[in-house]
Amino acid sequence: MRGARHARWGATTVAAALAATACGGGSSADGIGSAVLSSSWGDPQNPLEPANTNEVQGGKVLDMIFRGLKRYDPKTAEAKNMLAQSIDTTDSQNFTIKVKGGWTFSNGEKVTAKSFVDAWNYGASLKNNQKNAYFFGYIDGYDKVHPKSGSQSADTLSGLKVVDDHTFTVKLNQKFSGFPDTLGYNAFAPLPRSFFTDHAAWLDTPVGNGPYVVESYTKGSQMYLKKWAGYPGSDKARNGGVTLKVYTDNNTAYTDLMAGNLDLLDDVPAAQLKNVKGDLGDRYINTPAGIIQTLAFPYYDKAWNKPGADQVRTGLSMAINRKQITDTIFRQTRTPATDWTSPVLGPEGGFKAGLCGTACDYNPTEAKRLVKEGGGLPGGQVKITYNADSGSHREWVDAVCNSINNALGNDTACVGNPVGTFADFRNQIGQHKMSGPFRAGWQMDYPLIQNFLQPLYYTNASSNDGKWSDEDFDKLVDRANAETDPVKAVSTFQQAEGVVRDNMAAIPLWYQNGSAGYSERLSDVALNPFSVPVYNEIKVS
């Protein structure tokens, strides 16, 4: 895996960050404060290249240090123009994008059309091994810069052309009516020239164009982001900065919050849900988010990719008592899933309650029959792999296994298989080391049904960690993307989702709310529909 190095920046700056976090607030005449808040966090899997970050912890930082052509409204998730002056098309295949003037990176360099084109070419290139390269797959010439096999025959995407400092054109290799709404995703962020001229230095100290700048990072400890005073956007930081503190157990973070050693915890552990309302009162947030939790499978393992395996997976799904688990463990912060998207999308956006059908109903008798008819559990037992550095996962994995064991009448049919840290867990997944089902939560990148399906289940897609592949699914996704009528596009995506259901490509567990708790020092705290704190809006007293 690329990018193993991690920055260990100035101890002096870290000390200053800690001092700022501990001290009281301060507010200037324009209402923008100077005090720093502290927030719970986990080390990102990779250095913070926008096209190489596809997990939540790294994504939080990118949301703070970058702004793209679009930005998703913190309340509604609507894709609104940010650096884009306009994105025009007459055929949903050829787009002219105009970039607003007056924007710079934090190093003073102007953000231009070339800043986007160079960044996208870098992200798409096979030789750069970027995890989000697939997001550029609909741009003409992708097959030359990122072929399915062999070496690339071009270094740049033929579908990208710089017209002038503030204009570039994009030609797609097929119609994709939803393309403009994807451009708020961090993979499409612009990059400064320093990213290319001194890449190692950029990785040590990332330079972006968002309301914060990275001042320091010590892996396993914390990252300090300072408000960028010269930020030209309208969404300026209303605090002096954020110290992201690394926790390997959210229960410890909760204890620190209650003790006054942490300002913001953005994932309340399951063990504390029974206490959190009494502990925090109206400083507890519980709000719907575009997140679904599933169990994925390693289709590169023949045991899970043979005739009858779909029956075994469906049987396991029917052995899980979702309602009992969400009621007893998650206390109104999870809802049993009945499809593979999220209610946040709404019916018009593609959410279809009940699409999973009886396969998501708890039915021990049918579960036992299907597992037996499908050839039984591979090796006689399933081990659910998960990262152990979150206070939430062990409890629900144990509960899922207990439910499966009870349904199948076998106390050892299912066991949990913890991996120490999130980064190690993701690395093992990336190295195809899973031998059974594994935790696969998905937080939407942008509010389209396409985003809940294509990145996860399309052949060789960027987040298709289990390497599932189905020709019928791929064809339906291609048809849906080419459809210019939004209603027809959603309907076709739902047909593709039906293929996922019929194969039980992954087991949907529950829809997840965003949950957070914060200290008395903070106000105007909110989670966006992606369950990420809107850091720039937070005030510190």
Written description of the protein model:
The protein has 541 residues and is an alpha+beta fold. Helices cover 30% and strands 19% of the residues. The chain is built from 18 helices and 20 strands. Strands 11, 12, 13, 16, 17 and 18 form a six-stranded antiparallel sheet that branches. A four-stranded mixed sheet has the order 1-10-9-8, sandwiched between helices. Helix 13 crosses helix 14 and helix 17 packs antiparallel against helix 18 (486-503). The longest helix is centred in the last third of the chain and has 18 residues, at 486-503. It is globular, with a radius of gyration of 23 Å.
Write the layout of secondary structure elements.
Layout: H1 11-22, E1 36-41, H2 56-65, E2 70-72, E3 79-81, E4 84-89, E5 94-99, H3 113-124, H4 142-145, E6 160-164, E7 167-171, H5 179-182, H6 194-197, H7 199-204, E8 212-218, E9 222-227, E10 241-246, H8 250-259, E11 264-265, H9 276-280, E12 284-296, H10 309-318, H11 322-330, E13 334-336, H12 346-349, H13 364-373, E14 382-387, H14 393-408, E15 414-419, H15 422-430, E16 438-439, E17 442-443, H16 449-457, H17 471-482, H18 486-503, E18 507-518, E19 522-523, E20 539-540
Parallel strand pairs: 1-10, 14-15
Antiparallel strand pairs: 2-3, 4-5, 5-7, 6-7, 8-9, 9-10, 11-18, 12-16, 12-17, 12-18, 13-18, 19-20
Helix pairs in contact: 10-13, 13-14, 16-17, 16-18, 17-18
